[in-house]
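Input record (Table S2, row 117):
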Amino acid sequence: MLIVNLAGALLIVLIVWWFWLYKPKAVEQSEAGFSVVVENGNYSPSRIKLKTGEQHALKFLRKDASPCAEMLLIPQFDIAETLIVNQTTTIRLPEMSAGEYEFHCQMKMYKGVLVVE
Ligand SMILES: [Cu+2]
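Output record (copper (II) ion complex):
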C-alpha cells in the first residue's frame, strides 16, 4: 500500500515537472534544413529562438502517427496547420515582436515555445 502511494506521489511530481517546470534549452534556428521533429509526445527542439523583425518559416517533420500530433496551433498568430505523417510541413510566421509564443497540438500534449528576441 505504501509503495503504491509512493509511486503515485512520484508520478505526480513527474507530471508537474514535465508540464510546468521543465524548460529545455532554446535552439537557434540557423542551420539550413532545420526542422522540428514531432515524435514521442515531443517537439524537438521545443524551444526555438528567432529574431525579431524578420519573417521566418518553420519546418515541422511529423513522425508520430497518433492523431494527437496532427494539428499544429500557434494561437497568437491564428495558425492552425495539419501535419502529415512522415512529411515536412512548412509554416510561415509573420514578423514577430519580442516575446514568447506557444505552439502546441490540439490537446496541448505536444508543447513548444518560440522565443523571439
Ligand atoms: Cu495532442
